[in-house]
Design a protein that fits this description.
The chain has one domain: Uracil-DNA Glycosylase, subunit E. With 207 residues, it is α/β, with parallel strands linked by helices. A 5-stranded mixed sheet has the order 2-1-3-5-4, sandwiched between helices. It is 40% helix and 11% strand. The model has no long low-confidence stretch (mean pLDDT 95). The termini are far apart. A hairpin with a 2-residue loop joins β4 and β5. Bound molecules: uracil. Uracil (URA) binds next to loops. The site of uracil has 12 residues, from loops.
Length: 207
C-alpha cells in the first residue's frame, strides 16, 4: 500500500474555508488513524488518501454519501467537489453549515475512475461506518444516494421513498437523493430543497 501523503490542510491548494473541516473530534482520533492505515480492500492500492469524515462528534445531524471522488481523494475531506457545493447550498437553506454537521461516506477511499463501490468494498468499510454512527450519535441521519440508503431501506427505490423519515434505533433516518443526481437532473434541486426543509422539524421532534 503506498504511504498516505501528508494532509494538505495548510498547503496552498487547500481553500481556507476547508481548513476547519480537518479538525478531528477527540473521540474519533483512533478511528481516523485506523482508517488512514486500512489495507482491507483493493481501494487501498489506488487512493491518494483516505476520507474518514468531517464535522463534530457528537453531532445532531449526520449525512452519509457514497464514496470520495477525485477532489475528496486529493484533500482527504468528504463532499468538497461540485456535489459538495450543492450540499453546502442545501445546508444553508436550513440554517446549517458544514462546520456543524457530520458528513461521511459508505466507503472511505475513492473507487478508481469514480466507479460505484462494490459489495466487498462496502462490507469491508461497514464497521467504520457503524462506529462513526455510535460516536456521532445523531438525532437525524440523512442518507445521500442509493448506497447509504440500502443500509436502512434495502430493495427500495429512492424515487418512491425520498424525504420520508422513519424511526430506527431511536433516531430519524431520512432517505435523500444524492446531490450529484440533482446536478445531472436540475428538476431534483427543488425536490432536494423540499426534503431538506423538513430537517429542522425532525431535529426538534423527540423520537
Ligand atoms: N460523492 C459522495 O458520495 N461523497 C463524496 O464525498 C463526494 C461525492
Amino acid at each position: 500500500m503506498p504511504p498516505q501523503p501528508p494532509v494538505p490542510e495548510r498547503g496552498p491548494a487547500t481553500p481556507a474555508s476547508l481548513r476547519p473541516l480537518y479538525e478531528v473530534p477527540a473521540g474519533c482520533v483512533s478511528l481516523y488513524e485506523e482508517i488512514a492505515d486500512c489495507p482491507a480492500c483493493i481501494l487501498a492500492r489506488t487512493r491518494s488518501r483516505t476520507v474518514p469524515g468531517s464535522g463534530p462528534a457528537p453531532c445532531d445531524l449526520m449525512f452519509i454519501g457514497e464514496a470520495p471522488g477525485q477532489r475528496e481523494d486529493e484533500l482527504g475531506l468528504p463532499f468538497v467537489g461540485r456535489s459538495g457545493q450543492f450540499l453546502d447550498e442545501l445546508l444553508a437553506s436550513v440554517g446549517r453549515s458544514r462546520a456543524d454537521v457530520y458528513v461521511t461516506n459508505v466507503v472511505k477511499c475513492r473507487p478508481p475512475a469514480n466507479r460505484d463501490p462494490n459489495p466487498e468494498e462496502i462490507a469491508e468499510c461497514a464497521d467504520y461506518l457503524e462506529r462513526q454512527i455510535a460516536l456521532v450519535a445523531p438525532r437525524v441521519i440523512a442518507t445521500l444516494g442509493r448506497f447509504s440508503m440500502a443500509r436502512w431501506f434495502p430493495g427500495e427505490r429512492i424515487s418512491q421513498i425520498h424525504g420520508r423519515a422513519v424511526q430506527r434505533d431511536g433516531r430519524w433516518i431520512v432517505p435523500m437523493y444524492h446531490p450529484a443526481a440533482a446536478l445531472r437532473d436540475g428538476s431534483l434541486r427543488a425536490v432536494m430543497k423540499q426534503d431538506f426543509a423538513q430537517l429542522p422539524a425532525l431535529l426538534a421532534e423527540a423520537v
